[in-house]
Amino acid sequence: MSAVEARLAELGLTLPEVVPPLAAYQPAVRSGAYVYTAGQLPMVDGKLPLTGKVGGEVSADEAKQLARTCALNGLAAVKSVIGDLDKIKRVVKVVGFVASAPDFTAQPGVINGASELLGEVLGDKGVHARSAVGVAVLPLDAPVEVEFQIEIED
Predict the structure, then answer these.
(1) What is the pLDDT of residue 33?
(2) Which of the ends of the chain has fewer CB neighbours closer than 10 A, N or C?
(3) What local confidence, expressed as pLDDT, does residue 77 receive?
(4) What's the CA gap between 102 and 130, in Å, rounded?
(5) DSSP-assigned letters across all residues of the chain
(6) Is 119 exposed, middle or buried (0-12, 13-18, 19+ CB in 10 A)?
(7) Which of 138, 141, 143, 136 lies closest to 58, judged by CA?
(8) pTM above 0.90, yes or no
């Protein structure tokens, strides 16, 4: 077991299976020293636990937990490309999308769920630049979607 996966276990988490693509793309691709994930939805066992707009049908706290799930799914996608999460040198950039009710403006707090998980699991390697964007709708009516760019070392 890698050190990263041991840390996940300490946190009571396990890497899920890679979420199959919903369309014509790969869950993650490597280019040189970087891995780029596709947008990761908060799928659990093949389905979304919640749907709808954050600030409407979904609370900010629920959405923050869903963003954690997105990040965990992203780590699974990264592992599928590099084989060993201990090869992560650092998380470079996280982009989070929040399907938002018209008056919802706390997108950064929601995406903190993903950022905090990466920090808990990877320590200083998980510190990153980030964007948190409110959008009208996401695939399958998901409340959140997260993607990231990771630098790796061989």
Answers:
(1) 98
(2) C
(3) 98
(4) 22
(5) --HHHHHHHHTT--PPPPPPPSSSS-SEEEETTEEEEPPBP--BTTB-S--S-BTTTB-HHHHHHHHHHHHHHHHHHHHHHHS-GGGEEEEEEEEEEEEB-TT---HHHHHHHHHHHHHHHHGGGG--EEEEEEES--GGG-SEEEEEEEEE--
(6) middle
(7) 143
(8) yes
Question: CA gyration radius for the chain?
Answer: 14
Cβ–Cβ contacts within 10 Å for residue 154, how many?
A: 6
For residues 111 and 90, give the distance between their C-alpha atoms in angstroms, rounded to a whole number.
18
What is the number of residues in the chain? Answer: 154
- Amino acid 75 reads L
Alpha carbon distance 136, 116 (integer Å): 25
Nearest to 68 by CA among 12, 28, 133: 12
Residues 37-63: what's their mean pLDDT? Answer: 97
Query: Are 68 and 112 a contacting pair, CB within 8 Å?
Result: no
Using alpha carbons, select from 117, 90, 118 the residue that is nearest to residue 33.
Answer: 90
Q: How confident is the model at residue 154 (pLDDT cuts 50, 70, 90)?
A: confident
